[in-house]
Write a structure and sequence with these properties.
Elements lengths: L1 H18 L8 E3 L2 E3 L6 E6 L4 E7 L3 H15 L2 H4 L2 H17 L1 H12 L3 H20 L20 E9 L2 E5 L5 H15 L2 E5 L6 H13 L6 E3 L4 H10 L3 E7 L2 H12 L4 E5 L5 E4 L5 H13 L11 E5 L3 H13 L19 H16 L3 E4 L3 E2 L5 E2 L2 E4 L5 H4 L6 E7 L2 H9 L6 E5 L3 H10 L4 E4 L18 E2 L12 E9 L1
Parallel strand pairs: 6-7, 6-9, 7-8, 9-10, 11-12, 11-18, 12-17, 16-17, 18-19
Antiparallel strand pairs: 1-2, 3-4, 5-21, 10-20, 13-16, 14-15
Helix pairs in contact: 2-9, 4-6, 4-7, 4-8, 5-6, 6-7, 11-12
């Protein structure tokens, strides 16, 4: 297997070197071409499963961000702004075909940067991204206004109607956990609406975004419609948020960064969409298919090393089956095989960065100090890569591990007595992104869904996401929705026109 792995890495590194302008050293992508930064600082892209750097990107300056925004703004009144919706849709479809052609490379770019098994990017991230692109391509020529009859104007008849116009330049700030998929949740509806884009990927996972921008040029997008500037959130991201020509910011990340973005964006009244994470409950009733529920519970917290905004990190179980479910979940955790991203036998990879590894290890220590009962895992290993064993605790909802987003493979099992108790515990959180209900009682599933305070409720399955379904949270989990027809509202402004006849 080692020879196989090393051969796969050699092929990947050769591919990167061929595609970059200087062996594994990438530039920004501005105005349709790779563009060196105006500064000389760079950021290494690291494989956390091996703790080794394999590429680098610019640590972009304010001047880099300004150049990207101005390139995007110029296209609003340029070739892109003149394109009819049907042609925008055809370009998005052409881009989707190129992404599908290069999906193995894109999947490896992200998997190796994050440390997760590449199979996960191939079975979830890339299929969802492609579906999102093709779904919104179909919307590009269907964004219409409405004729509205009125009572006239001082006795004269009027013809009144609305137009839905692109909001303008969109600054898209993307996280590192499922970067390509979330990039498409932002770019596809924005492009369909006629907006132009400046994308700031996470510093840990910039390569797939840069490759996407190059594919857009290959697809025939006018230069400057899609721009990518790499760098840190507090520098390049902050410059993008405060730029006066940016009309809207769409951000996925944590609440602290979301608050900072909101304060900065308020100065120029920018439109905002914020998805800020969660502490999602998975609620198991005695009438559930327990074998299926255990598999779903494990997937809900251990998929992508638990580095998922909708991770089901609180498992609420009816007291009559709590011991059985906790033991089964601990058994599932103990059976997970950790390994290299390119190892086909790996079921879980490394955590994405040293900071994230230290954060998760710290929460495991906090849980032990709070006297949560450790049922499985609880160990970390950074001797070769940044690995944390899948960890299961039994505890209470008032513990920090039940209230704070850990963003790692750590779950707490909490018993409940009845529906009312389950709802009380589930809703006792500052977050409200998603929730899962495991039950065979259809009436109960509807009762629970109506009263759970979450943007999405899934019954008998975790992460039933789809390009056609709105996605977003309530409370501290953010504001606004991505995906579905409602996403188009985030990228259009309504103009009212009245003609006095």
């Amino acid at each position: 297997m080692n020879d196989q792995l090393e051969g796969a890495y050699d092929a990947f590194h050769q591919d990167l070197a061929q595609r970059s302008n200087s062996a594994r050293a990438f530039d920004n992508f501005i105005g349709g071409r790779a563009t060196p930064s105006t500064g000389d600082r760079r950021i290494e892209v690291v494989n956390p499963a091996r703790k080794s750097a394999f590429a680098s990107v610019p640590d972009s300056t304010d001047a880099d961000v300004d150049a990207a925004v101005r390139a995007a703004a110029a296209q609003l009144d340029g070739a892109w702004g003149a394109l009819p919706g049907a042609e925008r849709g055809r370009l998005i479809l052409r881009l989707a075909d190129l992404v599908e052609r290069d999906k193995e490379l894109i999947g490896r770019m992200d998997a190796i940067s994050i440390g997760r098994p590449v199979v996960e990017t191939q079975i979830l991230d890339l299929p969802n991204a492609l579906d999102t692109m093709r779904y919104f391509a179909g919307w590009a020529d269907k964004i219409t206004g409405t004729a509205i009859p009125t009572g006239g104007y001082f006795g004269r008849p009027t013809h009144s109607y609305t137009r839905r116009e692109p909001v303008g330049v969109v600054g898209a700030i993307v996280p590192w956990n499922t970067p390509f998929m979330i990039t498409m949740w932002k770019l596809a509806p924005a492009l369909a609406a006629g907006c132009t884009i400046v994308l700031k990927p996470a510093e840990e996972t910039p390569l797939s975004a840069l490759h996407l921008a190059a594919l857009a040029t290959e697809a025939g997008f006018p230069d400057g419609v899609i721009n990518v500037v790499t760098g840190r959130g507090e520098t390049a991201g902050a410059a993008l948020v405060r730029h006066p020509l940016v009309a809207k910011i769409t951000f996925t990340g944590g609440p602290e960064a979301g608050r900072a973005i909101g304060r900065s964006a308020a100065d120029s009244f920018k439109r905002l969409s914020l998805e800020l994470g969660g502490k999602s409950p998975q609620i198991v009733f005695p009438d559930a298919d327990l074998d299926g529920a255990i598999r779903g519970l494990a997937m809900g917290i251990f998929f992508n090393q638990g580095e998922v905004c909708a991770a089901g990190s609180r498992v609420l179980v009816h007291r009559s089956i709590a011991d059985k479910v906790a033991a089964a979940l601990a058994g599932a955790a103990s059976g997970v095989r950790l390994g290299d991203p390119l190892d086909p036998e790996a079921q879980m990879g490394a955590l994405a960065s040293r900071a994230q590894f230290d954060r998760v290890a710290g929460y495991i220590d906090i849980a032990k100090a709070e006297q949560a009962e450790l049922l499985a895992g609880g160990t970390v290993d950074d001797s070769h890569g940044l690995f944390v064993r899948p960890t299961v605790f039994r505890g209470r909802n008032d513990m920090r591990i039940a209230q704070e987003e850990i963003f790692g493979p750590v779950v707490v099992v909490i018993p409940f007595d009845d529906e009312e108790d389950a709802l009380r515990i589930a809703n006792a959180s500052s977050y409200g992104l998603a929730a899962v209900v495991w039950t065979s009682d259809v009436a109960r599933s509807h009762r629970m869904a109506a009263r759970l305070k979450a943007g999405s409720v899934w019954v008998n399955g975790w992460a039933a996401i789809d390009a056609r379904l709105p996605w977003g949270g309530v409370k501290q989990s953010g504001a606004g929705r991505e995906n579905g027809a409602s996403a188009l509202d985030a990228y259009t402004e309504i103009k009212t026109v009245t003609i006095v006849l």
